[in-house]
From TrEMBL:
<protein>
    <recommendedName>
        <fullName>ATPase</fullName>
    </recommendedName>
</protein>
<feature type="compositionally biased region" description="Gly residues">
    <location>
        <begin position="53"/>
        <end position="66"/>
    </location>
</feature>
<keyword id="KW-0812">Transmembrane</keyword>
<keyword id="KW-0472">Membrane</keyword>
<feature type="transmembrane region" description="Helical">
    <location>
        <begin position="73"/>
        <end position="92"/>
    </location>
</feature>
<feature type="region of interest" description="Disordered">
    <location>
        <begin position="1"/>
        <end position="66"/>
    </location>
</feature>
<feature type="compositionally biased region" description="Basic and acidic residues">
    <location>
        <begin position="31"/>
        <end position="46"/>
    </location>
</feature>
<keyword id="KW-1133">Transmembrane helix</keyword>
Length: 308
């Protein structure tokens, strides 16, 4: 690659003519002329002598010297022509080879450019397809982002609603806890009341048992009194019949004594009065009402426990 900033421009040859040149042009390097053994060696002195005697020597000698001095020049000219011809032929071959290389290079460049154009078309088509795919994908991504944003907003709303519902549930749970505590206290009170009622019921049951025994004893006493009354009535009837007879005094006296004994026994035995019977009946009704009230309270407590 070119680097014009760092090119060295110091050694640039001058393009002007060398009129002001101080030093003369160097002498050309000429090949030495080969001489044969028959020819005498021509040194500087003999050359000066020939020049000095050339004026008086005649024209024949001058013609022979001119031929001898022009032969090397023709040889040199011929050599130059041959070298120029060889150089021209070599240059022509080189130029032809360079032209062939240039044509091949141009053809290769043309093929490369065609391949590059095809590749560029393929790449451009791929780029267009990629751009279209990217556009569609970006649109799909934008649509997905919008959907996600909508879902996020909806989730936020649901979360807020859930938070409010949770707060309301917490408040309700607190109220229910308070109600449960109150109901627990009420259950404790009812349990205590139930225990007291059970104790009262036990005492009432014992009282009922004692009253039942007393009632049985009273019934037996009443039966005995009824039997005594029956005996008295029968004795009275016997006495009346005996009085009508008028003969059996001893039997009458005996019967009267028996009646007096029975009367005394009946008077001395405590008979149940109407007031005592009414009090017993009221007490029995009160005990029955108390037992029924306790049974209803127990049923209500069982219903509340089943409802929870």
């Amino acid at each position: 690659m070119r680097n014009d900033a760092h090119d060295e421009l110091d050694n640039i040859p001058s393009l002007t003519a060398g009129r002001d040149r101080v030093e003369p042009y160097p002498a050309p390097d000429l090949e030495p002329i080969r001489r044969t053994a028959a020819e005498p060696v021509d040194d500087g002195r003999s050359r000066q002598k020939r020049r000095a005697g050339g004026g008086g020597g005649g024209g024949g000698g001058g013609g022979g010297g001119g031929r001898a001095s022009s032969a090397p020049l023709w040889v040199m000219v011929l050599a130059l022509l041959i070298s120029l011809g060889a150089l021209g032929w070599w240059s022509y071959q080189k130029i032809a080879m360079l032209e062939m290389q240039l044509v091949a290079t141009q053809e290769s460049f043309a093929r490369i450019s065609e391949d590059a154009a095809g590749r560029l078309q393929d790449i451009s088509g791929k780029v267009v397809a990629t751009e279209s795919n990217v556009t569609t994908e970006s649109e799909a991504v934008k649509l997905r982002i919008k959907q996600l944003e909508q879902q996020t907003v909806e989730l936020g709303r649901k979360q807020q609603a859930f938070a409010t519902e949770q707060q309301s549930l917490a408040g309700r749970q607190g109220n229910q806890d308070q109600r449960l505590e109150e109901q627990g206290k009420r259950l404790e009170r009812l349990g205590n009341d139930l225990q007291t009622q059970q104790g009262t019921t036990a005492s009432l049951a014992e009282s009922v048992k004692t009253l039942g025994s007393e009632q049985a004893s009273l019934k037996s006493t009443l039966d005995e009194q009824a039997k005594l009354a029956g005996r008295i009535d029968s004795l009275s009837k016997d006495v009346a019949t005996l009085k009508q007879g008028g003969n059996q005094n001893q039997a009458i006296s005996r019967l009267e004594q028996d009646i007096l004994v029975l009367r005394s026994q009946l008077d001395n035995r405590p008979a149940p009065s109407a007031a005592n019977t009414a009090e017993f009946d009221s007490f029995r009704a009160q005990v029955t009402r108390t037992i029924n009230a306790m049974q209803s309270q127990i049923a209500n407590l069982q219903g509340q426990i089943d409802g929870r």
